[in-house]
């Protein structure tokens, strides 16, 4: 079984053929792949097929292929051309349901087509909803029923959803959505919330009223300022006393250091005095010993003669030994040594006298520093400390009083705010009428530019008036051509004007870089248009209009894509100059394609 396949090129495309050859089925396949819940049309020839593939291309040369089972379910997405769409893929839903944030067809198609995500207003209260492919569908896929219908190309069948469709058209014209709109809640919900707020406010006001009993508003407000002035004066005095205390503490520290230094010097001097005293005692002892030695040498010659213990000879005047010879030397040495010690003792006494003087100086410093420290401690303890404590206690009392008054002031402010808020809520609750919302109309400059594109399209198609005048009726959301509404024409003209609407919108969006899928597909724009004797009075048109429509298709810019599905065959010159597909039907000649679905072999 061969694939049922049809391809379209950039620029202009024409798919023509007899009835029941599957032309409109192509649109239903596109509708299904772009998120329709079900396949809206079934043809017997397609029963053997189970899977639908659709490949899209964009201006950057990328390819996107969607796959969906014809029996329903989710879609598979391939960032590849259709012939390579296999293997790794991702699954998306046809459309989101409820609060779901999962990927769907819109979240894939919009980024691929360069359409930003948008949220549009759905009612006059400002509720917004996500723009989807399904919202845009009527302006780029026009089926054979809608193209001749009297309803607006934007609104479709009037009724529920008009606001969303209007905002969709504004989004295409301007590129701006309503994501910044804050919605208004339903009146019943608002009233219930207001009643709940009133209850809360009454509960908040009750304790405030009790605390504010007997409070004079003017006295409370004035007292706070007076307390602020008194507190500032007290703080200034505290700062002055703090500086005074710091100076006294600095003086106390200096005096204490001097006292410690003097005491340490006295201790050191006393240690030296003890040592010098011991040295003086040593000198006195040495002098006594030397006196004894010298005195002993004088008595040595007065000894009686005896036998010499050394030689056992009588010790006469001539009998002398070394010891005797030394007696005079010992005396002299003792005398010399005594003189030396006397000199050292004199120096020692001078040093002791100097120490005594230095000690007296340090003792005087100790007395002076002790006296100064006592004076400082007295000032700190008896004078400064009481003053500091008094001002600190005063500042604490003032602060406490100020806090109480500030709390009273806050209570008064809060009470006033609650009274005002209660009044506003009561006023809002009494106002049962919904407030009318003023919303920005369609931008006139964008509408004018769009209408100029439709005028250019009609002129290109050979509209009977040489300079067609197109306006946009914001009541019917449809175009008015040369003063006549589209709905007032017959089917054939309505179809052509619907086609001019969507083609002009496509060209406007491309020229002004506005969001758009980048292609339109129109089913049977000319089929209901008849000439000659079969023409209806309301369908009377210049015979060259159909030819002008056909001749415009090959001129389509290759940055755009227009696909026309028709029963009629275009002129041969148009067939040769555009991408043309012809479904000949079962009675077609050999070699002709019979229809969208290949015949069973």
Unreliable spans are: 531-538
Shape: elongated
How many individual β-strands?
Answer: 14
Helix count?
11
Provide the helix percentage: 40-55%
Give the amount of beta strand, in percent. Answer: 5-15%
Average residue pLDDT: 84
Straight-line N-to-C gap: 8 Å
What structural category arises from helix and sheet content? alpha/beta
Radius of gyration: 60 Å
What's the arrangement of strands in the largest beta sheet?
8-12-13-1-14
Helix and strand succession?
EHEEEEHEEHEHHHHHEEEHEHEHE
Largest sheet: 5 strands, parallel
Give a structural overview.
With 601 residues, the chain is an alpha/beta fold. Helices cover 52% and strands 10% of the residues. It is elongated. The termini are close together. The chain has helices at 23-33, 105-113, 133-140, 162-174, 187-211, 217-299, 322-430, 444-461, 491-511, 544-552, 572-577, and strands at 11-17, 51-57, 63-69, 75-78, 90-92, 119-121, 128-130, 141-142, 470-473, 478-481, 484-485, 519-523, 561-566, 579-583. It contains 11 helices and 14 strands.
